[in-house]
Write a structure and sequence with these properties.
Blueprint: H1 8-20, E1 58-68, E2 81-93, E3 99-112, E4 116-121, E5 124-137, E6 140-145, H2 148-152, E7 161-171, E8 198-210, E9 213-224, E10 235-248, E11 254-268, E12 284-297, E13 301-315, E14 331-339
Antiparallel strand pairs: 1-2, 1-14, 2-3, 3-4, 3-5, 5-6, 5-7, 7-8, 8-9, 9-10, 10-11, 11-12, 12-13, 13-14
Length: 340
Amino acid sequence: MSKNNLSPTIAIASMLSLMLSGFITGNAWAHHGAVSAAFGPGTPVETSSPLTLVKGMWLLYEKCQYVPYKKYDRFDEPGNLDSFTFYNTLIGYGVTDYFTPYLILPYAVKEQDDLGTSEGFGDVEILFQLGFKYGNRNGIKDWYLFDNDDSTGADYTMNDLKCSILAGLTVPNGTTTNKDNHDETFGLGMQPGFGAPTFSITGVVSKMVLPSFTLGADTVFRTFTQTNEGKAANEWRVNVAGVYDIYEKKGAWLSRFDVIGEANYLHLTKDIDENRLEDPATGGDILYLTPGVRITFADRLSMGAAVMFPTWTNLNQKDEQQGAEGLEEYRLSTAVSYSF
């Protein structure tokens, strides 16, 4: 038996964790984002990839998301939220072929009409990813932890069901004291940091279902802890992506060109204020449709771009939620990663 063979009990428990992670009561595009590696088939932009880094490999990753909001006359006082811009720098290292820790360093720029701009570093996040599959190894089909061939996309692994579980937490080191143009402290939603730890768990799957076409999905639960200023809404996300490989030539200067279609669902609970009361003008459900592309050079350098359009919304008090998820004009994401 391979040393990376998973027992049926562990495999079943892992898959249960994967399915249940989205259904616990209570990622975020607005805060952090998907891990978008430069290798392997079917890597989307917003939806996470299940692929871990091979042992000894480093990943450098930069993602930027620009979010302009729809504006309404009734929000002239104190002003409409204008736009948010998020930058996430990620560093990952392959401890083993199946286990990768990541460090995410966020920076945010948040603009509100008359109140000015709030910018600074957000809360650092630490992620741990465990990768495994159901597929063939040495002629035996079973559950296995990833090895080098799985993460790099060796031909015989292409039809395997590839999975991973990610667990994350943030350190509340981000800026929470920015002041507006009237020398008043911005509210929690305008601060780059949240002032308290957050915790997340993510389950990811992907499988090549047709030649050159891969389906992937993830489900993410993120919870925010209470501060003296209140508590941000808990998040549940379900992302589904289809990736079609138009061109591939391993080892070439231009090694891959993919077109991507994603559907991204978000459920938000209500924010809680400093008195531990729910804010009725927060929370709801949003569905984004997201076209995108990804280009990979020399199997190492990857560049992706996608535009998220809020296609369907069911907000709790839509008329009072200017600047909320679902009331954007769009979300433009760009991502660059390099593995070595």
